[in-house]
Amino acid sequence: MTSPVNYKTLTVDISNKVAHIVLNRPNELNAMNVDFWHEFPSVIHDINNKSAARAIVISSTGKHFCAGMDLAVFSANGADDNIELGRKHDQLRRLVLKLQDCFTVLETARMPVLMAIQGGCIGGAVDMVTAADCRYCTSDAFFSIEETKLGMTADVGTLQRLPKLISIGLVKELAYTGRRMPAEEAKQAGLVNQVYDTQESMITAVLAIAAEIAARSPLAVTGCKEMINYARDHSVQDSLNYMSVWQSGMFQPQNDMMEIFKAKAQNRPPEFAELTQIDPTKIF
Length: 284
Known about the structure:
It comes from Shewanella livingstonensis. This protein has helices spanning 34-50, 72-76, 85-108, 124-130, 158-161, 168-177, 183-189, 199-214, 218-233, 236-250, 256-265; strands at residues 10-15, 18-23, 55-60, 113-117, 120-122, 134-138, 142-144, 180-182, 194-196.
């Protein structure tokens, strides 16, 4: 099923419980303009709230995955010079927080998010892909914390999430220098799961991984995502304790587990109920 919504910066296709979001401004190197910052989190929220898919794949068009932030975003949100200085700085802080939230949605979405990256993944694009669950790339891909070259500090998630993925010394080198990290180095460092020769073979493989995820119990998968992300940010003991609390509420063996046993006995794929939909407009 293809989304009926016409977006300016991306396309969305949902098929067989996998949502495929494609950044679609190849002539502009998929730079993140004002429309992107509105559309991207809206799409993720919509898929999550409607339980429209069990896995999300994000890919791109053209030579490069994404050239990062379109600097016109800042001019579009330019502070009024007549505003008192403290309030002007507060306005900028709230803008940065809003931009951060646009990628945090990838972590808070209940379903896994897989990134398929070709060519350049630059600046704000690194912020985005580090918020995903898994990353895959082509052999010509490279990653660059470009903000340093522009005289600013990366502020939308790279410096907070990348140290959880690769060694902190390597993060510091990449951030301080702004150099490009090529695909093979990214794989050796653990930033990407796999490197593919072509974009076509990569997207085929990543969609296949997403389809395998979608065949599993969505409640079990979202539990894995919740627990892994929690363990990343907490001690082992705190994470074990949270696991016990989660399992005491979510583990219902008479449902998904019994369905798996029945499906195996009947030589058929298991059928699972979707996660419940979320209506953000309702409290009860």
